[in-house]
Every structure is written in C-alpha cells, then in structure tokens.
Amino acid sequence: MVSVLQNVAVDCADAYELARFWSSVTGRPLHPEDGPGERETQVLLAEGPLLHFNQVPEAKMVKNRIHLCLRPETSRDQEVDRLLGLGATFVADHRNPDGSGWVVLADPEGNEFCVLRSDADRAAMHS
User: At what angle do helices 15-26 and 76-86 cross, to 10 degrees?
Assistant: First the structure.
C-alpha cells in the first residue's frame, strides 16, 4: 500500500489572493467554486497534486522548509522577469557564469520558490 499526494498546502493570510497569484504563475485556473473571501482556495494544475491555499491567522516567520521549484517553458531569465511583474520579489541569485543555476523568488506573502533553467536552456548548455 502507498499514499497518493493529493495537494501541496500553503498556509497564508489571504487564500484567494495568493491562489490568484499562483494561478497566474502556472497559467492554471482556480477551482470554479472558489472566490474572494474563501478561507481555502485551490489552483487546478494540469498534472499532479493541487495547490491548496489555506488561510491561517499566523504570519510567516522564517524560511520555508519545503518550497516549489518551477521549470519554465521560456528561458529562466524571461520567466524571472515575468514573475517579478506579477508581484514576486527577488530573494537570491544562484545563477552561474556558465548559465547553470537558479533564482530564488518569493510570492506576495513571502513564500520562497525557485526558478530553474528551462529545457531549452539546459539543451543549449550541452550542445
């Protein structure tokens, strides 16, 4: 017997607004029954588990012990620029001169996430 991963839960101050941000990041819709003021909201990903946003009274205090890593369809650097335009903030730059590495951003509530190289970025490095 095994367990199946149902969702990745994110505690937050405003479930609907944070879910809207992640909906824009992933290009995936919110659950059709979710709306402003909902204490729990979900982003319906194309594959795998849901992103579940759960409103809690406590503020985020320290660095995440678990985080999301994104592999963009465009280049890593183009995606970083797009996400900053959506409201993400820059946390750390782990890009290397050879093009490898990643960038750490935070969502509007301070949850860190990484932007990795795209498949095209990775293929260009090995050609």
Answer: 150
Distance CA 8, CA 122 (A): 27
- Kindly give, in sequence order, each residue whose CB lies less than 8 Å from that of residue 50, ignoring residues fewer than 6 positions away: 6, 7, 8, 42, 43, 44
The amino acid at 55 = Q
**3-state SS of the chain: helix, strand, coil percent to 5?**
25, 30, 45
- Give the integer Cα–Cα distance in Å for 101 and 94: 5
CB atoms within 10 A of CB 113: 20
The per-residue pLDDT for range 3-43, each reduced to its tens digit, is 889 999 999 999 999 999 999 999 999 999 999 999 999 99
Kindly report the pTM of this predicted structure: 0.92
Return the residue matching tokens 């860190």. Answer: 112
